[in-house]
């Protein structure tokens, strides 16, 4: 039985926008250990399903897809944003 994880995209740290952060992603997990090529040192893998990521508008849609396909999944909760409130005057303390 394939395994997957469902998570919500985090905010991009290098940009101020919040585009695509409301989407949910179903990502299939690898069924085998990823071998390292001894010649190049790169990671290679024959399991192409581990490269598949499916995007959904809601968590319920992602869970329904996994249930229809017989995929076992676990939901990774989105981290709560930490607000660092700071006044401009704090720069000169």
TrEMBL record:
GO cellular component term of the entry, any: membrane
UniProt xrefs under InterPro entries: NADH_UbQ_FeS_4_mit-like (IPR006885), NDUFS4-like_sf (IPR038532)
Keyword Electron transport: yes
UniProt main location, coarse: membrane
Keywords assigned by UniProt, alphabetized: Electron transport, Membrane, Respiratory chain, Transit peptide, Transport
Residue runs in coiled coils: none
Signal peptide coordinates: none
Keyword ATP-binding tagged: no
Subcellular location: Membrane
A single BP term in Gene Ontology: electron transport chain
Gene3D superfamilies on file: atu1810 like domain
Protein name per UniProt: ETC complex I subunit
Organism: Sphingomonas horti
């Amino acid at each position: 039985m394939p395994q997957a994880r469902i998570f919500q995209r985090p905010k991009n740290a290098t940009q101020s926008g919040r585009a695509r952060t409301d989407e949910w992603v179903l990502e299939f997990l690898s069924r085998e250990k990823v071998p390292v090529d001894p010649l190049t040192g790169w990671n290679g893998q024959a399991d192409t399903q581990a490269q598949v990521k499916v995007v959904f508008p809601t968590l319920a849609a992602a869970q329904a897809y996994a249930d229809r396909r017989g995929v076992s999944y676990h939901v990774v909760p989105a981290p709560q944003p930490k607000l660092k409130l700071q006044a401009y005057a704090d720069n000169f303390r």
